[in-house]
Design brief:
The complex is a heterotrimer of chains A (459), B (278) and C (320).
Chain A: H1 9-14, H2 17-30, H3 35-38, E1 43-50, H4 55-70, E2 74-81, H5 83-86, H6 90-94, E3 103-106, H7 110-117, H8 125-129, H9 133-137, H10 139-144, E4 157-166, H11 168-174, H12 187-199, E5 203-206, H13 214-222, H14 229-237, H15 252-266, H16 279-287, E6 291-297, H17 301-311, E7 319-322, E8 335-337, E9 340-343, H18 351-362, H19 364-374, E10 378-379, H20 395-407, H21 413-416, H22 423-434, H23 440-457
Parallel strand pairs in A: 1-2, 5-6
Antiparallel strand pairs in A: 3-9, 4-6, 4-7, 4-8, 4-10
Helix pairs in contact in A: 2-19, 4-19, 15-23, 18-19
Chain B: H1 2-32, H2 36-41, H3 53-59, H4 67-97, H5 102-114, H6 120-133, H7 140-164, H8 168-176, H9 181-192, H10 194-210, H11 215-218, H12 227-233, H13 235-239, H14 242-274
Helix pairs in contact in B: 1-14, 3-14, 4-7, 4-10, 4-12, 7-10, 8-9, 10-14
Chain C: H1 8-29, H2 32-66, E1 69-70, E2 78-79, H3 83-89, H4 92-124, H5 130-136, H6 139-142, H7 145-155, H8 162-169, H9 186-211, H10 214-222, H11 227-256, H12 259-265, H13 276-285, H14 290-319
Antiparallel strand pairs in C: 1-2
Classes of the chains: A alpha+beta (459), B mainly alpha (278), C mainly alpha (320).
Chain lengths: 459, 278, 320
């Protein structure tokens, strides 16, 4: 994800329901009907989607319904997969006979690295060539092109993570000082804020410390504040043997970032027992009103928050804040993620139909029906805009988008590089650091050694 | 007096342990029928409005209608295959082996026995590779085959012990009546061994029902998983809804416990049999 | 997962005696019956050995082979020589995991046997309600380990967990997050391991205790020994071989134990409860390093076989 990637807040707000309906019709026409070539024999497609967060499910259900209307011979089945499995054992599912026809491929996971390396996916070149897709997706599409010149996965929406959702009621009661929809000024301010929350009986920041990603999220947000743009770019690309190393992991910026993460944990910012909770539990903790903040992302207001509010369990309207920068005067960042992509495995028995559905999925029509209207997500293509209707895109999300439009967002290191080198490697180390089980210097040294190992031996 | 005191402490100890054993089952049932907010609000209260909706939520865990039902079916298939394989292969062999000369019998026993100390972790990766290669992944029936084979050593050894003590007079009477050796086995021996076969079978059943280490590797897709693995992979899904979690737990835990209570005579015997030191 | 294996080593401990018995008894009966059945024995043993070869011997060999290669779970297998082993030898996580696996296995096995003995002693002394208790105590062994582990891990959650609710009631506060700290997470896991395994050990030990002739104990009673003395002086020495055996087995099963730990902690926090089977599973199925995982499995396997061999030796020599 290059830093040039932005979502324009203005245009988000500007798009009316009418124009989007018009776009829908237009893009519907732009799709060449392929049913003649594919035949009308009954076929059942199985789609894999993640279980948590509700969003991918809503998105697929809506797109599938529209697709089935166009092709009545198609039946759609779903195969849910857990967050834990999508970056690990899913490799075995994808490469087995029982694979779903459309599978979830987190781009920063070892699954994606291995399955592309082993030629286990069907090239999606047709999809990217059709409907102006490369241009519509923009820079992320260029990053998707593999060394062999093929595309194997298509993103479907953009989310921003590292959003600190706030509970204004709790903050007010605690008399804590929080930036209104903005940055914490320093790590010290964040710690002082949490202490005030603690005094009033709330935890400062709820995180799912048990997950294999949340610790490294914070790293993604804070690290860009301590290194130059050029260095960040090098950290993201230097695992490739043909890119020269210009930034080392043992450089002061990284050490300072890790020190800050250690200080935050030590300063009692997180909830009691955070290392034993996953993100779902942390979310429940926050929505139940037990913490001032939650480390989350833009999929939450329309997902878990909405569910809990409907149930009456969540009794406040969340605001948001952004983590502090590592050094005084610097700013941490929100992080865009478009990495939960989809692809078609070579083992799929209905490849033609799967490709057709996937193409429909990221067509403007599909993006509008699924990503925008059904899931309230931010579409990955620049020809469709997020809805400005708060019923579709919750106000909290629109606020974040407006913030991103003025403040920008930086690529997150762990969502850019392959997991075996990035997230799955670094996250346990940060968990250890949070407990005082290791030092920043030791982590930096380990990550540097890993870098040399990956450059030499591959992933 | 001293005896009385020790008796008192013994009584106290067993009651304490019994409570410790029963408490989780009590809470699984209690929370399984309580609304989540009641679990947080008045966890120990016995007067509450039953919230059977939990069972429906649990039944459709992960957003799939009847997910748990499917897992039960998978578990059923897996366990059935495991039982059929282990009993059909091991029981006849265990019977006929008693007629081998003692030295040969012993050699067979030791060989089979060595099969029981192989750590599972040494097996799962090759299993995964082979199952993947022969397109047997994600099929509960084939996973059941692995469980069945791994249960053969125990089944064989326990049945062999039993047959060694089988009254010879019965067999000889059969022989005198002109029955063939396979008929003696089927018509005379098997009917008299039902109790033992049931108790050995239950041991296999309990193990195959609860194990997750092999199933988590061989059954990767959600709709092929047995209840043990399914619960595991969707534990996170449950955690936000405590009531449903406990409803799910009770659905997984109560059936085997009830089955055990009904058949407890055999289970206890089967286990004690392993410990006989005549 | 443990129930399957329960009897065999007891079998070992008894098979020699049994073999002798058999031999003397058989002398008379050996006439026609054995001769005609030997062929059937050979035929019926073929599938047993064939299946055991395919499902045990071959995979073990394959694991061994894989431990010298590099494989990402998909695609071709590359040869790697000793690099996997070299990596493990210098890996601090491997050292840590080996250490806690041994601590975990021996602690759990010790308490399982100790509690099992106490319960068996109480039941053989006919405490009240022992008939029902005999049945109830095995409940934890019957319920699927996954369900048991999920229940307990939710119980150890701060504030909302049953354990914390209980601690709050007795005035100890409700914010104990034992599973969330790498310094304490192993304790709840050990507790659950013990809790679920005692029932089985108890039944085996009780089986052994009940084999002791009543006359022996009555004789002791006449000699003026009380219940406690009877137990320590007569019963314990007589069941020592069984205790040795069940202890060895519990060590092996706990060492092998995957489900309880995985379901409670996934090996965390920060890998503090990653016992060897968990470490190997993660290495293979999460990080896609099947070669290193196989090397871990081989090391675990060798260790377990040594433990098994020593245990069997001990229980046997005790018996003689």
């Amino acid at each position: 994800m290059k830093s040039s990637f932005r979502v324009s807040g203005k245009s988000v707000v500007a798009v009316s329901a009418l124009t989007s309906a018009f776009a829908l019709v237009l893009s519907g026409l732009s799709i060449t009907p392929a049913s003649a070539a594919l035949g009308t024999a009954p076929v059942t497609l199985t789609i894999q989607h993640e279980t948590t967060g509700d969003r991918p499910e809503l998105e697929w259900h809506a797109v599938a319904a529209a697709f089935v209307k166009l092709h009545p011979n198609v039946t759609i089945k779903y195969s849910p997969i857990t967050n834990e499995a999508k970056g690990g054992t899913n490799l075995q599912v994808i490469t087995s006979d029982g694979t779903p026809d459309i599978v979830l491929l987190p781009l920063n996971s070892n699954v994606y690295t291995q399955v592309v390396k082993g030629k286990g996916m069907v090239p999606l070149d047709g999809i990217f060539a059709a409907d102006n897709t490369v241009k519509r997706i923009g820079p992320p599409a260029a990053a998707l092109k593999q060394a062999d010149g093929h595309y194997y996965a298509t993103p479907h929406s953009v989310v921003y993570y590292n959003v600190l959702w706030t509970n204004p009621d709790a903050i007010k009661k605690a008399g804590a000082k929080a930036p209104a929809n903005g940055h914490f000024a320093s790590v010290a301010q964040l710690i002082a804020f949490s202490k005030a929350c603690n005094k009033a009986g709330y935890a400062g920041l709820a995180i799912g410390g048990k997950t294999n990603f949340q610790a490294s999220w914070m790293f993604d947000s804070m690290m860009p504040s301590a290194v130059t743009k050029k260095a960040l770019n090098n950290y993201i690309n230097s695992y490739k043997p043909d890119v020269a190393i210009t930034a080392n992991w043992t450089d002061p910026g990284i050490i300072k970032t890790l020190d800050a993460l250690g200080a935050i944990a030590k300063g009692g910012v997180y909830q009691n027992g955070y290392l034993g909770m996953d993100l779902d539990q942390a979310t429940a903790y926050f929505t139940a009103g037990k913490s001032c903040m939650l480390l989350g992302g833009t999929w939450m207001p329309g997902g878990a928050f909405k569910t809990e509010t409907d149930k009456g369990a969540m009794k406040f309207t969340p605001g948001f804040a952004v983590l502090p920068g590592v050094v005084a005067g610097s700013k941490a960042t929100l992080t865009p993620y478009y990495g939960d992509a989809y692809g078609v495995p070579v083992k799929s028995k209905n490849q033609e139909w799967a490709l057709e559905l996937l193409r429909f999925f990221i067509s403007d029509t599909g993006q509008k029906i699924g990503s925008v209207d059904a899931a309230g997500n931010l579409p990955v293509v620049n020809t469709v805009k997020a809805s400005s209707d708060p019923k579709v895109t919750p106000q909290a999300v629109q606020d974040v988008l407006a913030f991103v439009a003025t403040d920008g967002a930086q690529s997150g290191w762990t969502s850019e590089v392959p997991g075996a080198y990035g997230q799955t490697f670094l996250n346990p180390l940060i968990q250890k650091l949070q407990e005082g089980g290791t030092t920043s210097a030791a982590i930096a040294a380990a990550q540097q050694a890993k870098l040399m190992d990956v450059r030499k031996n591959g992933l | 007096m001293k005896a009385l005191i020790s008796k008192f402490f013994a009584q106290l100890g067993v009651w304490g342990w019994t409570a410790l054993v029963l408490v989780p089952f009590f809470f699984i049932l209690l929370f399984g029928t309580k609304d989540t907010s009641d679990i947080y609000g008045k966890p120990l209260s016995l007067i509450y409005k039953p919230h059977f909706q939990n069972f429906a939520s649990a039944w459709n865990v992960g957003g799939v209608n009847g997910a748990i039902g499917k897992w039960f079916i998978n578990t059923g298939l897996l366990v059935t295959v495991a039982l059929v394989v282990s009993l059909c292969v091991a029981v006849p062999a265990a019977y006929f082996t008693i007629f081998l000369p003692p030295k040969a019998n012993r050699r067979v026993m030791v060989t089979v026995l060595s099969g029981t100390v192989v750590p599972t972790i040494l097996l799962v990766i090759p299993y995964f590779k082979a199952y993947n290669q022969y397109h047997m992944l994600n099929k509960p029936i084939f996973a059941g085959l692995a469980y069945g084979v791994l249960a053969i050593p125990t089944t064989f050894l326990l049945m062999n012990r039993f047959f060694l003590d089988f009254p010879r007079e019965v067999l000889e009477a059969g022989l005198l009546d002109g029955l063939s050796n396979s008929k003696i086995f089927r018509k005379l021996v098997l009917p008299l061994s039902v109790g033992q076969i049931v108790s050995v079978g239950i041991l296999t059943l309990i193990w195959a029902w609860g194990d997750s280490q092999i199933a988590i590797v061989l059954l990767q897709t959600q709709d092929s998983q047995p209840i043990s693995v399914g619960m595991l992979s969707f534990a996170a899904d449950f955690t936000t809804n405590l009531g449903a979690t406990f409803a799910g737990l009770s659905m997984a835990a109560i059936p085997p416990v009830i089955l055990y209570i009904i058949l407890s005579k055999y289970v206890t015997k089967g286990i004690a049999l392993g410990g006989i030191t005549k | 997962m443990s129930v399957k294996n329960e009897s065999p080593s007891k079998q070992v401990s008894t098979s020699s005696a049994q073999g002798r018995n058999l031999f003397s008894r058989k002398k008379k009966a050996r006439i026609g019956l054995d001769a005609i059945n030997i062929r059937s024995a050979r035929i019926t043993l073929i599938p047993v050995f064939l299946l055991l070869f395919i499902f045990l011997a071959l995979p073990m060999f394959n694991s061994f082979k894989l431990s010298f290669s590099r494989w990402g779970g998909f695609g071709p297998v590359e040869s790697a020589g000793w690099t996997n082993y070299q990596r493990l030898i210098s890996d601090p996580q491997m050292h840590y995991s080996s250490k806690i696996t041994i601590i975990y296995a021996f602690t759990v096995a010790f308490f399982v046997v100790a509690v099992g003995v106490l319960l068996a002693a109480a039941v053989s002394a006919n405490v009240r309600g022992h008939k029902a208790m005999k049945i109830i105590w095995f409940f934890p062994g019957i319920a699927p380990p996954t369900a048991v582990a999920i229940f307990w891990s939710s119980s150890f959650q701060p504030d909302s967990g049953v354990v914390n609710i209980f601690l709050k009631r007795i005035g100890l506060g409700s914010n104990h997050a034992l599973l969330a700290s790498s310094h304490t997470a192993l304790f709840p896991v050990m507790f659950v391991g013990i809790w679920s395994a005692v029932g089985f050990a108890f039944l085996v030990i009780l089986g052994a205790v009940e084999q002791i002739p009543v006359s022996l104990r009555e004789a002791a009673h006449v000699d003026g020994a009380n219940v406690f003395q009877q137990f320590t002086k007569i019963t314990l020495p007589l069941i020592r071989p069984i205790l040795m055996t069940i202890f060895t087995l519990e060590v092996i099963w706990t060492f092998n134990g995957f489900t309880v730990v995985w379901a409670m902690t996934n090996g965390g926090p920060a890998d503090s409860t990653s016992i060897l089977p968990i470490l190997a599973y993660k290495e293979a199925f999460r990080y896609g390093r099947f070669g290193t995982a196989a090397a871990m499995a081989v090391i675990t396997g060798i260790f377990l076989m040594i433990v098994g061999a020593i245990g069997i030796r001990l229980s046997r020599s005790e018996q003689q």
